[in-house]
Specification:
The chain is mostly beta strands. It is about 0% helix and about 55% strand. The chain contains no helices and eleven strands. The strands form two sheets. Strands 2, 4, 5, 6, 9, 10 and 11 form a seven-stranded mixed sheet that branches. Strands 1-3-8-7 form a four-stranded antiparallel sheet, with no helix packed on it. It is globular and about 40 Å long.
Length: about 110
C-alpha cells in the first residue's frame, strides 16, 4: 500500500483547501480510510474517517467545516477544508485503517493572516 498526500499550503483564516491522497495497492471496495493531523509537540489526532459505504465520522473541532470523500475509480481520498482557522495548522496525513494500516507522508497546512 502506498499513499501520497498533496494539496497543503498557506491559507488565510476563513479560507479553504482540498487535500488529496492518491492510493495504490489498496482494495477500494473494503478499505477504510482516514485523515489525521499533527502539530509539533502533540500527538497525532484523528480528523475524519470514511468507510466503503461512504459513511463518515469527524472529530468535533472540524464538524461542519471539513468533508472527507473518496473517488473509487481514481483511488483517491479527499479532505475538503472550509472556514479554516489558525488552530487547523498542522501536518495532515492520510491513512488506510483497514484491512492493513498504512500511512502516507504528510502535507503541511498553515492557516495564517
Amino acid at each position: 500500500v502506498q499513499l501520497q498526500a498533496s494539496g497543503g499550503g498557506l491559507v488565510q483564516p476563513g479560507g479553504s483547501l482540498r487535500l488529496s491522497c492518491a492510493a495504490s495497492g489498496i482494495r477500494s471496495s473494503v478499505a477504510a480510510m482516514g485523515w489525521y493531523r499533527q502539530v509539533p509537540g502533540k500527538e497525532r489526532e484523528l480528523v475524519a474517517t470514511i468507510i466503503p459505504s461512504g459513511d463518515a465520522t469527524y472529530a468535533d473541532p472540524v464538524k461542519g467545516r471539513f468533508t472527507i470523500s473518496r473517488d473509487y475509480r481514481k483511488k483517491t481520498l479527499y479532505l475538503q477544508m472550509n472556514n479554516l482557522k489558525p488552530e487547523d495548522t498542522a501536518v495532515y496525513y492520510c491513512k488506510q485503517l483497514y484491512p492493513v494500516e498504512a500511512w502516507g507522508q504528510g502535507t503541511q497546512v498553515t492557516v495564517s493572516s
